[in-house]
Specification:
Elements lengths: L3 E7 L5 H12 L3 E4 L2 H12 L3 H5 L3 H20 L3 H8 L6 E7 L2 H11 L3 E7 L2 H6 L12 H4 L9 E4 L7 H11 L4
Parallel strand pairs: 1-3, 1-4, 2-3, 4-5
Length: 185
């Protein structure tokens, strides 16, 4: 059982994976990265005979299938809001820190609260539109205006908000703020 579960949320191209990868490199064997999207993409890869590694990457290949994956995952969540959170955690390595790099919905936070209680720390990564566009973001109808991108827009109970815009906090400041949340581990 992890001592701390870091829940990261942010819009597409806000820099979640970049930041969580750096954090993992610093914490090494003290942490495990968990991706809620992995069970979704694994199912989709098997069902459609697609390349799972490409779906898990941050490239154009994934974008071709994003809308269909979102629609299917919404149907699954309607039946069981915790299905993907549970599946992602089932095979996670027991480490002191879990980094959940892709919290997207209030129900994701609810599931982790119900299962890990006071161990969770909620972190929102923000970046302005110009920065996100420079990283390859392009608004896509049916993707950027649905729950998978917008459900947490009005959520305000973050333990930490990081400005990852071009002129925002430096990587060192971001990592330092996160490490403060887990200093007892």
């Amino acid at each position: 059982m992890p001592q701390v579960v870091l829940l990261f949320s942010g819009k597409r191209k806000s820099g979640k994976d970049f930041l969580t990868d750096h954090l993992q490199n610093m914490l090494r064997d003290k942490c495990e990265i968990i991706k809620i999207s992995k069970p979704i993409k694994s199912h989709w890869a098997k069902e459609k005979n697609l390349n799972l590694d490409e779906l898990l990457s941050d490239g154009k290949y994934k974008e071709q299938y994003r809308l269909d994956m979102i629609q299917w995952s919404e149907e699954m969540r309607f039946k069981d809001y915790g299905c993907f959170c549970r599946s992602a955690c089932e095979n996670a390595v027991d480490r002191p820190v879990w980094i959940v790099s892709d919290i997207r919905r209030k129900t994701d936070i609810q599931w982790f609260k119900e299962n890990y209680g006071d161990a969770i720390r909620k972190i929102r990564i923000t970046a302005d539109d110009d920065t996100r566009k420079a990283r390859g973001y392009n608004f896509q109808l049916g993707v950027d205006d649905v729950a998978s991108e917008c459900d947490l827009d009005d959520y305000n109970d973050w333990d930490l908000v990081i400005n990852n815009s071009k002129n925002g906090q430096s990587l060192e400041e971001q990592i330092s703020a996160i490490l403060t949340l887990i200093k007892h581990v």
